[in-house]
Amino acid sequence: MFVEAEDLRAAEDHxxxxxEELLRLKDVKRELQILREQHRRLQRTAEGRxxxxxxxxxxxxxxxxxxSLRQPTEYECWLExxxxxxxxxxxxxxxxxxxxxxxxxxxxxPTFNPDATLISAAVNxxxxxxxxxxxxxxxxxxxxxxxxxxxxxxARDSRIQVMMEPQHRGISAALNTA
Length: 178
Hints:
Blueprint: H1 2-44, H2 46-69, H3 74-82, H4 86-97, E1 105-111, H5 116-127, E2 134-141, H6 149-156, E3 160-165, H7 171-177
Parallel strand pairs: 1-2, 2-3
């Protein structure tokens, strides 16, 4: 019982801090709205237009210096540390082929007017995997724009199947078709 009361007090303290932060953020939002309105009014004046014109070169300079000084993201650093060489990928493929148990992994992907670049990147990523006992089932859910793109994937790799629905019925129906 003592632990529960202590946990309850800690939770109440946390809620109180969150409420205080919320009130502070509401004040900041109000101040920001006032500043935006003042900025809009200033931009409409002659002085504001001159200031905008004079500030443009400074903005160009700042953007160019930021892009050259940009620090890599945490993911980019991780990726650089863990990137595998083509030789390592080939070695992993050979090891995967020797697995005693090689289950078939089925990837069901419903699509509806997919972005050609994104669906192509997804398919290419799957094809490049070191484990090769998979099948990709692409279900087109009645797309009207990309009907020709999906069958090309199936023509390139026998592990890829394409199912074309005549009309758009939603993601659940498309998955049930697969």
